[in-house]
């Protein structure tokens, strides 16, 4: 996804009675990745990992949604420990490859609890977090919100049961953590015209304001969220 200036400007619902009162883009720093990684390449993977000198910027963003019934997150960003703690990735080969594939620009001030505080919120205000997919740069804040229900697509959750999910940068150590309240969901077809062309939808709050759609590709169980306000 490409983040545009328009998207990072907070949108306020001007009409009273809107389910979604505001939407903010939050940042957990940024990274660099090889151009070949981002856009694809005919070159062998091992060639560009070790030989490419072309790096592109990768913003690591997530979203804070102020719904009238409480605050939600869409994704939780990256854990600063990935840059500071050599043991963040448990496998030796993973640690080695990570440093060839990504350069991280993230510090402790980018931790989820601190980012929420600068937005006037406490971690305990978050009731729900929707996780688009299980890559490490989307689940890095879940340890700070043990009270929150963590919604994830059931197909994405199933990736954890496959051999070596860490080869796909899905790190079980940082997903299956004590107290995390994961809720894998399935999509259901409805008479909402929005579901045309999709296998189904998932209505997060039951008021049609936040609709999850299956959008596999980046990972087998990736999902997207559509925010809807009147008008
Ligand atoms: Zn990803």
What's this, in brief?
With 231 residues, the protein is an alpha/beta fold. It has helices at 5-8, 35-39, 45-51, 81-84, 92-101, 112-118, 154-157; strands at residues 11-12, 20-34, 55-67, 70-74, 102-105, 126-130, 149-153, 181-185, 202-203, 210-214, 223-227. It has a single domain (18-227), classed as Metallo-beta-lactamase, Chain A, CATH 3.60.15.10.
Task: Give the helix/strand layout.
Elements: H1 5-8, E1 11-12, E2 20-34, H2 35-39, H3 45-51, E3 55-67, E4 70-74, H4 81-84, H5 92-101, E5 102-105, H6 112-118, E6 126-130, E7 149-153, H7 154-157, E8 181-185, E9 202-203, E10 210-214, E11 223-227
Parallel strand pairs: 4-6, 6-7, 7-8
Antiparallel strand pairs: 1-2, 2-3, 2-5, 3-4, 9-10, 10-11
Zinc ion binds next to loops.
Structure description:
The chain is globular and about 55 Å long. The model is unreliable at 1-15 (pLDDT under 50). α7 (154-157) links the parallel β7 and β8 (181-185). Strands 1, 2, 3, 4, 5, 6, 7 and 8 form an eight-stranded mixed β-sheet that branches. A three-stranded antiparallel β-sheet has the order 9-10-11, with no helix packed on it. The chain has seven helices and eleven strands. It has 231 residues and is of the alpha/beta class. It has helices spanning 5-8, 35-39, 45-51, 81-84, 92-101, 112-118, 154-157, and strands at residues 11-12, 20-34, 55-67, 70-74, 102-105, 126-130, 149-153, 181-185, 202-203, 210-214, 223-227. It has a single domain (18-227), classed as Metallo-beta-lactamase, Chain A. 18% of the residues lie in helices and 29% in strands. Bound molecules: zinc ion. Zinc ion binds at residues 133, 135, 218.
